[in-house]
């Protein structure tokens, strides 16, 4: 996996290599180009990955875990070529190991890989009643867009840079505003701070979900105009969280040196939206979440992700149902903005 960002007049990247067989160490390597051309000769600086934690370490810390004679390189002279959505990488390390590989960048314009099951609102309610208590999470979207974090949609890929730069800037500015002083060295508070950024519109490598299919429906239909009569659909994703957590390791750190999708439920510090939204969050370092989930489904034979598409023209009936359930803008966003949005719809937008 290689994550590359445009930085002013050049590229900066980080590559992750996990060899097979497993009796060799994984590698994380960092590189920077001179310009933004299509072909580059660079020196990549490498460090091993601790197999016990999944994070970068020094060779001295882990060499005892591997057979005698195994060593790890420190750098590699590397040639990188880009052609369309393809990236060819090859080179030689300082211990004489040669390597090569071809990677394909996911198509940014591609739609969802998940085929939605078309249901009416009544059918959807019947469907979710049958899986109540089965450990699903739900995410509502105005359209059947593919799953992708706001961070990756804006063509940012190096989460290490997000943590070291963006979070540092936001922490310096927001500490003067929030009533709670976040200690980012404490994992629970660190996660709560990231989630606060997400809920206030800053692009993060997080995706919002809810334990409630009806909260997800609110977010799916919320931005459709009253009286909508078109042929488009809204989408609600159903994620099999119980099976996912049972089968795959969940990571507290945003930037492990391997692909991951991890579920978290953050504490609600300075974030009154979390409780009424029955919120859960996935964190990932993956641009193409759906491809990863489909790969894991094929690997273990379990369905992790489904989608339901509901005609958007049912908007008014849905929002009326949700209002009687107590799911309104005022309850989802306990603030002046939320209350005003709720009452605007009730008193004006009819």
How would you sum up this structure, described in words?
- The structure is a single chain.
- The protein has helices spanning 59-62, 121-130, 150-153, 159-174, 187-199, 213-221, 241-247, 289-300, 315-324, 329-332, 336-347; strands at residues 2-7, 10-17, 26-32, 39-49, 75-83, 86-93, 98-104, 117-118, 136-141, 206-210, 233-240, 261-264, 279-284, 305-311.
- The model has no long low-confidence stretch (mean pLDDT 89).
- It is an alpha+beta fold.
- A hairpin with a 6-residue loop joins β3 (26-32) and β4.
- 31% of the residues are buried.
- The strands form three sheets. Strands 1-2-3-4-5-6-7 form a seven-stranded antiparallel beta sheet, with no helix packed on it.
- The radius of gyration is 23 Å and the shape is elongated.
Quote the distance from N terminus to C terminus. 50 Å
Strand content: 25-35%
Shape: elongated
By DSSP (H or I, 4+ residues per run), the number of helices equals: 11
The averaged pLDDT comes out at: 89
Percent helix: 25-40%
From the helix content, strand content and strand pairing, which structural class follows?
alpha+beta
Question: What order do the SSEs take from the amino end to the carboxyl end, as H and E?
Answer: EEEEHEEEEHEHHHEHEHEEHEHHH
Order of adjacent strands in the largest pleated sheet = 1-2-3-4-5-6-7
Instruction: Please give the radius of gyration in angstroms.
Output: 23 Å
User: How many strands, which pairing sense, and closed or not: the largest β-sheet?
Assistant: 7 strands, antiparallel
Number of beta-strand segments: 14
Sequence stretches where pLDDT stays below 50 over 5 or more residues: none
């Amino acid at each position: 996996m290689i994550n590359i960002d445009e930085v002013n007049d050049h590229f900066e990247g980080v590559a992750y290599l996990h060899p097979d067989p497993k009796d060799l160490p994984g590698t994380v390597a960092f590189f920077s180009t001179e310009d933004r051309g299509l072909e580059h000769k660079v020196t990549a600086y490498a460090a091993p990955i601790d197999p016990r934690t999944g994070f970068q370490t020094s060779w001295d810390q882990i060499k005892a875990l591997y057979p005698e004679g195994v060593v790890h390189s420190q750098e590699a002279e590397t040639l990188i070529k880009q052609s369309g959505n393809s990236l060819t990488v090859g080179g030689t390390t300082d211990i004489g190991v040669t390597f090569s590989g071809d990677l394909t960048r996911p198509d940014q314009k591609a739609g969802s890989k998940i085929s939605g099951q078309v249901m009416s609102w009544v059918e959807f309610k019947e469907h979710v009643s049958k899986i109540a208590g089965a450990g699903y999470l739900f995410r509502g979207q105005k359209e059947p867009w593919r799953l992708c974090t706001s961070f990756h949609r804006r063509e940012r890929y190096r989460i290490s840079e997000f943590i070291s730069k963006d979070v540092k800037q936001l922490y310096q500015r927001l500490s003067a505003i929030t009533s709670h002083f976040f200690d980012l060295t404490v994992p629970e508070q660190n996660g709560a701070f990231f989630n606060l950024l997400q809920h206030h519109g800053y692009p993060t490598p997080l995706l919002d979900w809810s334990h409630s299919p009806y909260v997800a429906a609110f977010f799916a239909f919320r931005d459709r105009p009253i009286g909508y009569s078109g042929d488009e659909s809204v989408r609600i994703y159903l994620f099999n969280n119980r099976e996912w957590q049972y089968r795959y390791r969940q990571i507290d750190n945003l930037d492990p040196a391997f692909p991951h999708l991890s579920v978290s439920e953050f504490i609600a510090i300075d974030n009154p939206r979390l409780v009424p939204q029955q919120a859960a969050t996935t964190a990932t370092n993956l641009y193409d979440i759906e491809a990863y989930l489909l790969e894991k489904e094929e690997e273990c034979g379990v369905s992790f992700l489904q989608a339901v598409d509901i005609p958007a023209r049912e908007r008014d009936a849905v929002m009326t149902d949700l209002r009687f359930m107590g799911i309104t803008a005022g309850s989802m966003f306990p603030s002046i903005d939320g209350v005003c949005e709720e009452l605007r719809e009730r008193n004006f937008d009819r």
